[in-house]
Fold this sequence. Notes:
Radius of gyration: 17 Å
Shape: globular
Number of domains: 2
CATH topology of the largest domain: GMP Synthetase, Chain A, domain 3
Number of helices: 3
Number of strands: 9
Largest sheet: 6 strands, antiparallel
CATH class of the largest domain: Alpha Beta
Amino acid sequence: MINSRNTEEVITFSRDCTATMIPSGTKGKVIKGEHGIITQSLGGSYTVAVNGNLYRIEGKDADAIGKETVKKVKEKLPDGKIVDEKAVWDAMRSCYDPEIPVNIVDLGLIYSCEFSETKEGTLVEVSMTLTAPGCGMGPVIAQEVEQKVKGVPGVWDVMVLLVWDPPWGQDMMTEAARLQLGLM
């Protein structure tokens, strides 16, 4: 499992790197030689402050900031085996809003997770929301859920639907999440 931690580590980009601006979700590039501070390292991605802006650096680009690159390995289940539902939920628990150091499951952002068996494998349908409807990172977080769940052995395909009803509220968070964020 990838270590989850908040940090304040100073880094220098060793190469040009694609990055996602937070909170707009706009793709951009950080140039080789730029200095930054890693403010969050959770779920295999990094939140980095560079020149007063926050950027999300994906695990596949971690080498640009001196970290180990995340490699995705897709295993297959033996014939006749179904997907481990706990593994799917664990995969979603490795997804984080880059501004909040709590996984999206404990934040209460996952409204449903349905499994359908097909001849190709298991189709997983996830309905999720965001803490704020205007969050530009929504598509990025939804794509991360899709990618991580697709990595679970036996999962054939994933559909992630962003929904806004009911609206998210702090009461949807687990007790542990509220405690971690100092809301209790």
